[in-house]
Amino acid sequence: MRRAAVAGAFYEAEKSRLKKQLEECFAGVIREEKEGILGAVVPHAGYMYSGIVAANVYAKIPGVDLFIILGPNHHGIGSLIAVSADTWVTPLGEVEVDKAFVDALPKRIIDVDENAHKYEHSIEVQLPFLQFLFDKNFKFVPICIGLSDEDTAREVGEDLADTIAEFEKRVVVIASSDFTHYEPDRVAREKDEYAIEAITELDVAKFYNRVYERNSTACGVGPIAAMMQAAKKLDAEKGELIKYATSGDISGDRSSVVGYGGIIIF
Question: For a designed S-S bond to 206, which of 17, 44, 198, 259 qualifies (C-beta 3.0 to 4.6 A apart)?
Answer without folding.
Answer: 198
